[in-house]
Amino acid sequence: MLPEGADTVVIQEVSARDGDRVTFSTAGAPGRHVRRRGRDFSEGDVLLRRGRPLTIRDLALAAAMNHASVPAYRRPRVALVATGDELVAPGADPGPGQIVHSNGFMLAALARREGAEVLDLGIVPDRLDETVAAIRRARAAAVDVLVTTGGASVGDYDMVQDALTAEGMALAFWKVAMRPGKPLMSGRLGPVHVLGLPGNPVSSFVGAVLFLVPLLRRLQGRDDVTLAVEPAVAARDLKPNDERADHLRATLSVDPEGRLVATPVGDQDSSLLAPLGLADALLVREPHAAAVPAGGLCRVIRLPA
């Protein structure tokens, strides 16, 4: 604290003492090197608002504000279960009719990016007993969200919904008027939120962005639950849409006028990861949307990195 009557501090580095006499090589100025009380924050200031993820810097700020603890939401726990006799792990040599499993790595990374802890229960064959066993392992681990991939449609080997129903799931909805991702399923298994995603990788990813991300944010009390939708300009003609909401994978650029431009990638098939890897955003086309000429307005949702 400054002595009574002082209003300036001259640092020792520019000072020289000779007995009781001090000389300065640099002149001081009123208020120089003085930190006034309340300069950082004052009593009653709200600096950590509800709904924002706590950063490393926030922890220092909370401590400096003399809070020994702050109320916070814990990280949600997410269990992943992939179903399908055709799936093999990366590094394996796929046989006829087999494909390399990719959804689990993508979904785990997305969930962790959104602040969740992930329990990957691996690949489950298309058998009811093994699917039920995986669901029970997720429940025993006290997860908050169970995400399944594959087995959510109407084929003979699509038995995820049967397994969940046998375990007591209350179905909220099944099948959504969207493309890709129509056979998406949602429900509750006691306290566990259930999200059944399609097996096609792009369908799985789009469904996770639109449904899993907002759910994880809600469970953490965040204030950015609703995904941001931005206006953009279509780089090429967009055809009229049918009864399903389209989510076209698109790249983003900025034109000379400073407008955001969305260019749909060439092939929109829901099995193709290479075009998805090029995309920056989802170009959203509402059901029954009218045709949009090149240069017309559209809407996009930026994809997480």
TrEMBL record:
Show the InterPro entries listed in the entry. Answer: MoaB/Mog-like_dom_sf, MoaB/Mog_dom, MoeA-like, MoeA_C_domain_IV, MoeA_C_domain_IV_sf, MoeA_linker/N, MoeA_linker/N_sf
EC number, as in UniProt: 2.10.1.1
Which Pfam families does its entry note?
MoCF_biosynth, MoeA_C, MoeA_N
The reaction(s) annotated as catalysed by this protein in its Swiss-Prot or TrEMBL entry are: adenylyl-molybdopterin + molybdate = Mo-molybdopterin + AMP + H(+)
Q: What is this protein called?
A: Molybdopterin molybdenumtransferase
Q: Which cofactor does it need?
A: Mg(2+)
- What PANTHER family does UniProt report for this protein, alphabetically? GEPHYRIN, MOLYBDOPTERIN BIOSYNTHESIS PROTEIN
Its biological purpose is as follows: Catalyzes the insertion of molybdate into adenylated molybdopterin with the concomitant release of AMP.
Tell me the ranges covered by the MoaB/Mog domain, including all copies. Answer: 79-218
GO terms, molecular function:
metal ion binding; molybdopterin molybdotransferase activity
GO cellular component terms given for this protein: cytosol
| Taxon lineage | Bacteria, Pseudomonadati, Pseudomonadota, Alphaproteobacteria, Hyphomicrobiales
* GO biological process annotation, one example: Mo-molybdopterin cofactor biosynthetic process
Q: In which pathway does it act?
A: Cofactor biosynthesis; molybdopterin biosynthesis
